[in-house]
Design brief:
Layout (H helix, E strand, L loop, with lengths): L2 H12 L18 H15 L7 E5 L14 E4 L5 H11 L4 E7 H7 L1 H10 L3 E7 L2 E2 L5 E2 L23 H6 L6 E6 L3 H13 L3 E7 L11 H5 L4 E5 L8 H6 L3 E3 L5 H8 L5 E8 L6 H5 L7 H13 L15
Parallel strand pairs: 1-2, 1-3, 3-4, 4-8, 7-8, 9-10, 9-11
Antiparallel strand pairs: 5-6, 7-11
Bound molecules: thiamine diphosphate (TPP) and iron/sulfur cluster.
Thiamine diphosphate binds next to helix 4 and strand 5.
Length: about 325
């Protein structure tokens, strides 16, 4: 085979189209923000030419956690609140895989909160999408930790009593935080750009995506959809850079250096206008997967030898009575 024909075949093999990442037909409600998140990650996989067999989507339980079913990659629809330990297990044993996590505000910030804290601290190389719709969607409108005060739900019929937990300020307060960003499902270009920057960060990239639940909170984000001034774009040469059309529509912009954690915490505390873009990025925080390098020792030969050893335990050797076992 000539080198030219070889490279033509490689080019053909390595280019992927959108269809290569499209799994089952999404069963989310019409207008659900999860559809926009799915489209953005499928585009990202295509543009980054991620090999489907080298890519894993991991989730917990919830409407948002159905996302791995709709990707034609490897996937693990885990148990409620446990997306992070599953993803960490995958990453530590297979560092060669691209790992994405989809988790809801109930899944991550309620039952999974302990795993969230340690996920940030371990800083393993993965892209985390927190689909934050402020409600438990799958279990039909129960209040979540991010539900705003006063929000009526099936568990808070007179309105929720507590101030909402802020996933950005919490994440920014955890040891070893290395990447925090925020975006909204209804600005697809921004969603894509932020996810792309998160993917390129080496470490635990935490992206909170404010996501519409059209079934149970159909009007909650209407004020922000109607008025672009209520979204503030965080721009910087090391962060988000707006296209001319986005800059024309979203004129409320501030320059924010993502290396400044104190300023990131101040900005993260603001809920109206909604700040979007890269709040914090620190590429020098060590990743647990690099420190341990466990997966690197697990060569195919090592894994095969382990299997053989296990299977040998159950082998019935065709040996004669009293004869020593053949080597
Ligand atoms: C251990 C356990 N407790 C409770 C449940 C019930 N449950 C399933 S999904 C869910 C909440 C999902 O809310 P969220 O994470 O916000 O996702 P959404 O459906 O809104 O995308 C709950 C409480 C469960 N499946 N497992
Ligand atoms: S219930 Fe809400 S979160 Fe769940 S699929 Fe429907 S719109 Fe989406």
């Amino acid at each position: 085979m000539t080198s030219t024909s070889h490279s033509i075949i490689r080019l053909h093999e390595e280019h992927h189209s959108l269809e290569d990442y499209q799994g089952g037909v999404p069963r989310w409600c019409t207008g659900c923000g999860d559809n926009a998140i799915l489209t953005a990650v499928q585009r990202l996989c295509r543009d980054e030419d991620l090999r489907p067999e080298k890519t894993v989507f991991v989730s917990g339980i919830g409407c948002s956690s159905r996302l791995p079913h709709y990707m034609k990659t490897y996937g693990f629809h885990g148990i409620h609140g446990r997306a992070f330990p599953v993803a960490e297990g995958i990453k530590v044993s297979r560092p060669d895989l691209a790992v994405f996590v989809s988790t809801g505000d109930g899944d991550c910030c309620s039952i999974g909160a302990a795993h969230w804290i340690h996920g940030v601290r371990y800083n393993m190389n993965m892209t985390v999408m927190l689909h934050d719709n402020h409600v438990y969607g799958l279990t039909k409108k129960q209040a979540s930790p991010t539900s705003p005060i006063g929000m009526k739900s099936n568990t808070t019929p007179r309105g929720s009593f507590l101030e909402a937990l802020n996933p950005l300020t919490v994440t920014l307060g955890i040891q070893n935080v290395s990447f925090v960003a925020q975006c909204v499902d209804w600005i697809p270009e921004l969603l894509y750009d932020v996810l792309q920057m998160a993917y390129h960060h080496r470490g635990f990239s935490f992206v909170r995506i404010i996501q519409r639940c059209t079934e149970f909170l159909p009007t909650m984000f209407d004020p922000w959809l109607r008025d672009p001034q209520r979204t503030v774009m965080l721009t910087h040469e090391d962060g988000l850079q707006l296209s001319p059309s986005l800059a024309k529509t979203y004129r409320n912009q501030i320059a924010h250096d993502p290396s400044n954690i104190d300023r990131a915490r101040e900005i993260a505390s603001c809920t109206d206008p909604i700040p979007v873009g890269i709040l914090y990025r620190n590429p020098s925080v060590p990743c647990y997967d690099d420190l341990r390098q466990v997966g690197k020792a697990r060569t195919p030969e090592f894994i095969r030898a382990g299997f053989e050893k296990e299977l040998d335990k159950f082998t019935v050797w065709p040996e004669e009575a009293g004869q020593p076992r053949a080597a």
